[in-house]
C-alpha cells in the first residue's frame, strides 16, 4: 500500500488548497479515498439520524504532476484514510508559496500523510517544511460505507442563485430562526422562508432554470410544473455549506425530495461536491 | 418596479407607504441607535422618528426626514407603532447591505395601522424578499425636557477626534466625567478605573473644535454603560454637538451623512449620574 | 523621573510594552542612570524579559535622584495608554513619562495632533529588583537573523502550539513542535521546518544540540523586533540552561530569557520525534511502506498501531507520568508557592526576585554568582 503525489504548479496548489479549505469548513473529520484516477473526500453522515453527508470528487491528473498509487491489493487498488481536514488545510496554508509540494503516505509512529513543501528561502538552499498528519487507515471491510451516494429520486431539481446572494439571505435568516424552508418548482422558482412569532420572511428567486436530467428521473416528469416541493432544514447546516464555498462552481444546483432531503451539487471542470441535508419535521 | 407587483394590498389600502432606492439610507441610521431590541416608531408628515430607551436614563432618537424617501405617503396625521429593531435590521440587510457602487437594495415599507404587521418589500438584482414584522402598541417615550434655553455649555467637534477617545476609554471606570468650562481645561473627558485615572483634554482653539460656547464651569458624571451605545452613532457621524443643560443633562447630536450625501440626525439624551459625596 | 520620547520612538516604546504583555501580568519599571528599564516575568518564572531604553532613546531623560527606585504595575493598564498603535502613529507627537513618588502615580502624557492631550495617571506599587540569571556572552551557540526569517519560521506552527524544539547542526537548523507524552498527542500533526545556515546573518554552533522552549515569548519579541526592524539573536547552550533572545541597537537593548526543557525530558522527546536528520533520507517512496501496519489491522480488530514505542526504561516511563501530574498541580499553584514545592515542573524557574542592596547590585544585567536554572530538579525527583 503506497501513495505518493507531487504538485509543482502554484495554480494547482492553490486550487487544491481551496478544495481542502472547503471540506474543512464542512466537517471536522472525513474519509479520503485515493484511487488511481480520483481523490474523494467523503463524509457519510447517517441521513436517517439527521446527519449531513458529503461527497467531493476530484480528478487527480488535473492537480498533480506526479501521482503513484498502490492500493490494498490488485483487485482493490484503493486506499481509504480517515483524516482531519483541518490539519491538511493548515499544512497546505504553510506551503502557499512552495516551489513544490509532495504528499505521501508514510509510516511514522502511526500512519501519516506526510506533506513536504520546498519553500523559497534567502539562500540557495530551500527551506523544507514537513507536516506529518496522522491518519487512520480504514480496513477494507468498512469500505462499503464510503461509496458514492446514489442520486435521490427527487421531486424538483433547480439551479441555485449566486451563492453569495444566497449566503447573505441565509445568514440573516439564521439570526431570526433555527429552521428554514427551501421550496422550488419546475418553473425555475425557488423560495427561502422562515417564520417565527416575531416575523415571517420569504425570499423569492425566479428564472433560475431547471437542469435537464433526462428520462431517468421519471417522478418529476409527471409533476405540475408550478407545484412547490419543499423541505424544512436546520439553517446551520445550510449556512455551513454556503460558508465553506471557496471553489467557484460553474454550475450549482439543488435537488429536493419533498419533505425528506435537499441535495446540493456544485460542479467545476475537475471538482464536484455533493452535500445532503436531511429535512426535519 | 417589481416590488409593487408583489404587494397583496394596493397602495390605497395602506396607512403608510415609504420607498427608498437605497435601503442603507435607513438601515445605517437605525444601526446608530440599535442598543435595545424595541424601538418606537413615530411617523408624521415630516418623516420618521425612531426612539430607543434604556433604564429611563438614556434615550436615542433617529430622524429620517420624509425627503430622504423617494415616496412617502401617510394617510393619517400621526401613526405610531413599536417593533423589534434587531429583527427589523436583519430584514433590512437581508441582501447583505452591499457597499459596492451601483448595487443597492430597494425598499418599499408599508403599514396598515394598529394590529397589522410592518411589511417590507426588498429587491436587489431581481430577487425579492417580503418581510412581515409584528408590531405592538407604542409606549410613550420619555420626555427629557431638554430645551435649548437651558443649555449651559455647548461645543461642536469633528467626530474623528471623539472616536479615538471613545475607542480608548478605560471601561473599568464606571463613569465618564465630562468637564466643560470657559477656562482650562475647556473640554475634558475623564475616567477613573482600576489602574488609575485618565483625562482627555481638547483645547478650545483646536482645529477639531468647530464651535465652543461654554459659559460656566460644569463637571458632570455619566454612567459609562449608558454612554457606550452612543459610540455606534459616533462611528457613523461626521460632526457631534455636545450640550449640557443647567441640570447636568447631556445631549449628544450626531450629524450623519448618507450614501447620497443627504443629512440625517441622531440624538442621545443621558441623565447625569447621582451626585457622589464629593462636595 | 521625567522623560520624553518623540516621533517613532513612542511606537517603539508601545511595542515594547505589548511584547512584555505577552510574558507577564505586571510591568516592572526601573529608571536608572543607564536608562529606563522595563521588565516582566511569567507566573511560573520560567520566562523573563527586559528592555533597556538608554537616555539617548529619549529627547529628555532625567533619572530619579534616588537610585533605588523601582515600581511595578499591571501591564494591562499601561497597555491601555498605548492601545491603538495606528492612532499612535497617526496622531501622537510626544510622550512624557513622569514619576510622582508622593502620590504613587506614574503619569504618562500623550501630546497628540490638534492639541489633544491625553493624561494617564497610573497607580503603582514599590517592588523588589527583578533580574534573571543569564550569561549570553558565554553561550556556545549563537544564531542571528532578520525578524522576517523568524516570523516566516514561526508562521508554520499553529498559534495553539506552546513549545517548539530547535535543533542545530553545523549548517542547519530544525524546528519542530514539541508534543507532550500523553495519549492525545499521537493524533497531533507534527511539523518540522529545516533552515539552512545561509539564511542567518550570524551562525555559530559550538555544540550540536536540541533545546525546547515556549514559543509564546518568541512571538512576543517578534512583535517588537518586526516593528523596530532589528535582527534577533538567539544564544543557547545545552537543554536545561536558558535560551536568550536578544535585540539591540545603539539606544536600546532587549533580552528575553526563557527556560528550556531539562535534559531527561528532552531526550524522551527526541527519541519520540525523529532526531534531526543530519542527512535527509533519499526521497524514495518505496521505503514508506505501511503494509505491515495494514496487515496487523486487517487480521485483528485491534486498531492499535503496530509500531512499538521506543524502548524506555520503566523508571523513565514512570517519570513521564509523574511529570504530567506535576504540571496539573502547577497550574493551580500560585507563584508564591513555587519556593517550597520546588520544581518538578518541566521548565524550571529562572531565578530572580532577590532584593539586593543597591550597592551590591551589578549594573551589568548578568549575575554570575547565582545558580542557573533548573539544575536541581533531577535531585529533587530522585529523592522522592
Question: How would you describe this protein?
Answer:
The complex is a heterotrimer of chains A (281), B (279) and C (384). By secondary structure, chain A is α+β, with helices and mostly antiparallel strands. Chain A folds into two domains: 2-145, Proliferating Cell Nuclear Antigen; 156-278, Box (Proliferating Cell Nuclear Antigen), CATH 3.70.10. Helices cover 19% and strands 40% of the residues of chain A. Chain A has helices at residues 10-26, 85-93, 163-176, 218-221, 235-243; strands spanning 2-7, 30-34, 38-44, 53-59, 66-70, 79-83, 100-107, 111-119, 127-134, 136-137, 156-159, 179-184, 190-195, 199-205, 229-234, 251-257, 261-267, 271-278. Chain A has a nine-stranded antiparallel beta sheet with strand order 10-6-2-3-4-18-17-16-11. A five-stranded antiparallel beta sheet of chain A has the order 5-1-7-8-9. A four-stranded antiparallel beta sheet of chain A has the order 14-13-12-15. In chain A, a hairpin with a 3-residue loop joins strand 17 (261-267) and strand 18. In chain A, helix 1 (10-26) packs antiparallel against helix 2 (85-93) and helix 3 packs antiparallel against helix 5. The longest helix of chain A has 17 residues, at 10-26. The mean pLDDT of chain A is 91. Chain B has helices at residues 2-6, 24-31, 85-92, 159-168, 224-227, 230-236; strands at 16-20, 38-44, 47-54, 58-65, 71-74, 79-84, 106-111, 118-124, 127-133, 151-158, 175-180, 187-193, 196-202, 209-214, 218-223, 239-245, 250-257, 263-270. A nine-stranded antiparallel beta sheet of chain B has the order 6-2-3-4-18-17-16-10-14. With 279 residues, chain B is α+β, with helices and mostly antiparallel strands. Chain B has two domains: 12-136, Proliferating Cell Nuclear Antigen (Box), CATH 3.70.10.10; 151-270, Proliferating Cell Nuclear Antigen. Chain B is elongated, with a radius of gyration of 21 Å. Chain B has six helices and 18 strands. In chain B, a hairpin with a 6-residue loop joins strand 7 and strand 8 (118-124). With 384 residues, chain C is α+β, with helices and mostly antiparallel strands. Chain C has helices at 8-21, 75-81, 85-91, 147-154, 215-228, 263-272, 291-299, 314-332, 338-341, 377-382, and strands at residues 2-6, 26-32, 35-41, 47-53, 60-62, 71-74, 92-100, 105-112, 117-123, 125-126, 141-145, 163-168, 172-177, 190-196, 202-205, 209-214, 232-236, 243-248, 252-258. In chain C, the strands form three sheets. A ten-stranded antiparallel beta sheet of chain C has the order 10-6-2-3-4-19-18-17-11-15. Chain C has a five-stranded antiparallel beta sheet with strand order 5-1-7-8-9. A four-stranded antiparallel beta sheet of chain C has the order 14-13-12-16. In chain C, strand 12 (163-168) and strand 13 form a beta hairpin. The chains are: A alpha+beta (281), B alpha+beta (279), C alpha+beta (384). Chains in contact: A-B, A-C, B-C. Chains A and B meet through helix 3 and strand 14 of A and helix 3 and strand 9 of B. Strand 13 (196-202) of chain B pairs antiparallel with strand 9 of chain C. Chain B: It comes from Ictalurus punctatus. Chain B: Its main location: nucleus. Chain B: Pfam families: Rad1. Chain B: One of its GO terms (molecular function) is hydrolase activity. Chain B: One of its GO terms (biological process) is DNA damage checkpoint signaling. Chain A: Its main location: cytoplasm.
